Amino acid sequence: MDEKPWLFKIRRFNWSGYTMTKMIVTKILEVIHETEDINTIKFEYPGKMQPGQFFMIWIPGVDEIPMSVSYLNDKIKGFTFKKIGEATNALFNYKKDMKIGVRGPYGNGFKIDGENILFVGGGAGIGMLLPAVEEAHRKNIRSSFILGARSDKEIFFESRLKNYNTKVTITTDDGSKGYKGYASDLAKKILNQEKFTSVLTCGPEMMMKSLYDFSKKINFQASLERYMKCGVGLCSQCCIGEGLRVCVEGPVFDGTTLKKIEDFGLYKRDASGAKIEF
Fold this sequence. Notes:
18% of the residues lie in helices and 37% in strands. The protein is an alpha/beta fold. The protein has a domain at 5-106: Translation factors (Elongation Factor Tu (Ef-tu), domain 3, Beta Barrel), CATH 2.40.30.10. A seven-stranded mixed beta sheet has the order 12-11-10-9-13-14-17, with helices on both faces. It has a six-stranded antiparallel barrel with strand order 3-4-7-6-5-8. Strand 13 (198-202), helix 5 (205-214) and strand 14 (219-223) form a beta-alpha-beta unit.
C-alpha cells in the first residue's frame, strides 16, 4: 500500500479560492429550552467570528446542517434553532455532554456601524441577531429591536435583549402580547416616526421582503436562508440571483445586492433544486 502520511497533516483544503475548515468534534456545554420547540445549544469553540456568520453542525448518524450563531465570545459559541425536520428534531433531543461536529465559521456577517440601528427579528431568526445587538451595544450604537412571533408562547430572548440597553417592542400575530400584527408592519410605523441609519433583519423571507421594499433609502441588511449541503460554495445548492451563494456571498446581503436578486421574497429551492414559492 502506498501510504501518504502528508494527507493526515492537512488542516485546511483550498481549491480555487474556497476554504474547507476541518471539522471539530466537541461536547455540548449547555442546552437551554427557550420555548416548546426552540432550543439553544452552547459549545466550546475558540476563535473570533462576525455576528451573522454560521457553522455547519454535524448530528452523527443523521445529517449536517447550517446554524447561525446566537451566542458569541472568544471561547464559547451557541446556536438557537427550531425543530422543523429530521435533523433538528434529532438535535432537539441532545443533552449536555453529548457530542456534535462543528466546522466553520462560514459566510459574511452583519456590518455594525452608524448611529441608530433598527433590528427586526421574526420567529427562530431572532436568535442570530443577538450577537449583532451585543456588538452594537459595545460600540455605543443606539438600537431598537422588534421581536416578532406568532404568539406569546413563541417569544424568546426578551430578557436577554434588555441587557444590551436596546429598546424592545414585541409583536404577535394573534395579539397575545404586545402589538397585534406583523413585525414588518410595526417596523414601517417606527421608521416613519424615528430616524435610523440602518435596518438589520432576519426571519421569514416575506417579512424581510416587505421591510426591504419600505427601507430602500437607508442601509439595509438581511440574513437569508437557503438549502445548503457543503457550506463552502462548492455544491451551488444555495445559489440565488445571478450566481450568488448564500453560504459564501451571504448569508447576510445588503440592500444593493438584494435589489439584484430576483427570487428574493418569491421562491427558494428544495434539496432537488425545485422551486418552492413563499
